[in-house]
Amino acid sequence: MKSIVWDFDDTIANSYPGIVSATQRSLRENFDISLSKDTIFKESKKTSVRKFVTDLLKDEDDTAQAVKLFYTTYFRYEKEYHDKITLIPHIKNVLKYCDDEHDMQFIVTHRDQSIFDLAKSLGIEPFFKEIVSVADGYKRKPDSNMLDYLMAKYDLKKEDLWVIGDRQIDVDFGRSVGANTILLNSAKVDFDYDHKVSDLLEIEKII
């Protein structure tokens, strides 16, 4: 039996418009830092919003406190966009295909507890055996912590495990345990991956 671990933001759901806007507004409001949405999007996709913001605020007197302040405002603004989040094209088709194949599917995400309500409102919750969030106290990707948890709990074998995401951090996450990786990205990238697709339907030919 195959096991599939999905990233959420920009892999399952088109949530980056809200993420980028909330980042932009929080940086401007709290630190008088003005960046274009395009810059925020590109830099966040390289690693994560947290890494990008932490690096940006590294010269603050107390970086950890500054990041905490950023997120207090960020979460308030990002929540305003939840009802505008839509599914990535064809994701339900692929989730159903994997479900029909009796694959075990999971979401592993850096998103906070909002992931659980979003999965319900988007109508995808029934496809997943479990949803794991760093809000539950796990270490962030690419640390293998969340995958280690799933592999131990469900006796998942690395040769049958697939990790799907839109960033290098997702590929590195999968490779941290020797899993197969699929990168959802239409752009040219400068890092290694096992498989790369620009349309989710291509996944059905790979897995």
From TrEMBL:
GO cellular component: cytosol
Molecular function terms from GO: phosphoglycolate phosphatase activity
Lineage top rank: taxon: Bacteria
Keywords, in A-Z order: Hydrolase
Keyword Disulfide bond in annotation: no
Annotated Pfam families: HAD_2
InterPro entries listed in its UniProt record: HAD-like_hydrolase_sf (IPR050155), HAD-like_sf (IPR036412), HAD_2 (IPR041492), HAD_sf (IPR023214), PGP-like_dom2 (IPR023198)
GO biological process entries: DNA repair
Gene3D superfamilies: HAD superfamily/HAD-like, Putative phosphatase, domain 2
Matches recorded under PANTHER family: PHOSPHOGLYCOLATE PHOSPHATASE
Protein's recorded name: HAD-superfamily hydrolase, subfamily IA, variant 1
